[in-house]
Amino acid sequence: xxxxxxxxxxxxxxxxxxxxxxxxxxxxxxxxxxxxxxxxxxxxxxxxxxxxxxxxxxxxxxxxxxxxxxxxxxxxxxxxxxxxxxxxxxxxxxxxxx
Length: 98
Description:
By secondary structure, the protein is mostly helical.
């Protein structure tokens, strides 16, 4: 096993340097992307449906609109008890749903 396993940041930085972007600018761009990803994650955690649905009432559209709430948050139990049109739990991967 190698002593060093490159991270996604390292790989992106290498690609930018190979493309001719100087190191300070590459670091600046990558840090901006990281900050944006963190903020998007925080926003997703903050989003809660106005009228959360109960077990068996959650739809695919609900999970798509509020993925953090229904997959990792307080609505998971309700989504787990609900099924898509292909009879899969909404917390599972359905091969028929988009």
